[in-house]
Amino acid sequence: MLGSKLPGKVIQNINSTFVGGGVAEILNRMVPLLGQLGVDARWDVIKGDTDFFQVTKKFHNALHGRQETITKADFEIFKETTEKNLKEMELKGDIIYVHDPQPAGLIARKSKSGKKWIWRCHIDVSHPNEEVWRFLEPFVVQYDSAVFSAPAFSRELPIRQFLISPSIDPLSDKNKELPQETIDSVMEKYGIPKDKPIITQVSRFDYLKDPVGVIEAFEMVRKSINCRLVLAGGTASDDPESEKVLTEVNERAGDNPDIHVLLVPPNSDIEINALQRASTIILQKSLREGFGLTVSEALWKAKPVVASAVGGIPLQVKNKLTGLLSHGIAGTAFALRQLLTNPDYAKWLGQNGKEHIRYNFLITRHLRDYLLLFISLEHPGDIIHL
Ligand code: UDP
């Protein structure tokens, strides 16, 4: 058992939110499962005010390559909040596993204490805003190792890099099988009739998920095919931009009775699961993406998926085999039409997609990768017998 090779070792995960977004989603499942394998895994979050999270959201967008104006004051806010967290946070892990840029500055506490530090980057930083990357890099290079989701996401660094893709837990409330009555009651609760095909995108209300572009693509499809659109999303406590995006989405949707914009409360896993299962097609029209867990969630439910070819999406959607990759609004509308008018093809894609997730993106594989990573840090040079 790999878990037994880490006796007494504490793995301390640190990120910036317990709720909302893919990182919290994974940690929610990973931390208890590591515990069940005999590993003392913990999870803490850094503290920050709205100013700090406004800055880190800008960093997030800029690292994804989006145009952002970053000021000197922004860098100061980041440093000040980092200082506060450095004073207040108890670093109790033998391995300190820091997720994403927000808490990256905690590395200043790395001393000769023997703790191992890993920076887990969930963002595609292959084409970042250089100014933000130059600010972040001096923190990153002090870590013992960095973990990226895919080769294409990483950068040249003078530290060891590991490539570990994220995963979904098939037994979680988000992904487990649901009785039809549960699915029906969720649809009823949100007032979505099941009278015609439903296209759904589940995402935080974030510009990079392009919800307005989703509406535009839907409107093009709706001209020739009678169908509905569901845009379901929530907010994240480390994402202050979402309310503004939601307002724009509601304005753009107007009073179109075929467009359902749903603000879903945090921890509504069964509801999200039900919405995905009730859908005819799942869309993920991101402009930039980390891994894009929602795509794995949809494919695991054997749903036909149309998704942009960005970030980790092409790892999950093999074009014309496990879904359709699309480019732009017209391209997305074209792919949606193709699936709506070819239900057998759509079904075949969804079934292939499910198998692809089974072999590559379930949490069992992810747990094993993490255990091997931790063991390789704690026992450098050892040969691990599996
Ligand atoms: N999610 C959710 N409720 C929402 C919106 C998203 O539970 O209202 C979940 C979604 O099911 C997925 C995660 O949040 O598990 C989003 O992860 P992803 O990697 O797709 O995107 P991120 O938000 O990290 O950019």
Task: Give the neighbour order of strands across the main sheet.
Answer: 2-1-3-4-5-6
Average pLDDT score: 95
Per CATH, the superfamily of the largest domain is Glycogen Phosphorylase B
Sheet/helix structural class: alpha/beta
| Corresponding CATH architecture of the largest domain | 3-Layer(aba) Sandwich
Q: What is the tally of beta strands?
A: 12
Low-confidence stretches: none
Order of helices and strands: EHEHHEEHEEHEHEHEHEHEHEHHH
What is the gyration radius calculated from CA atoms? Answer: 21 Å
Characterize the overall form: globular
Number of domains: 2
CATH class of the largest domain: Alpha Beta
Distance between the termini: 8 Å
Oligomer: single chain
In short:
By secondary structure, the chain is an alpha/beta fold.
Give me the secondary-structure topology.
Elements: E1 10-15, H1 22-36, E2 40-45, H2 50-63, H3 72-88, E3 95-99, E4 116-121, H4 130-140, E5 145-148, E6 160-163, H5 180-189, E7 198-202, H6 211-222, E8 228-233, H7 242-253, E9 259-263, H8 269-278, E10 281-284, H9 293-300, E11 305-308, H10 313-316, E12 324-326, H11 328-341, H12 343-360, H13 363-378
Parallel strand pairs: 1-2, 1-3, 3-4, 4-5, 5-6, 7-8, 7-10, 8-9, 10-11, 11-12
Residues 21-22, 25, 174, 202-204, 232-234, 264, 272, 290-294, 297 line the site of uridine-5'-diphosphate.
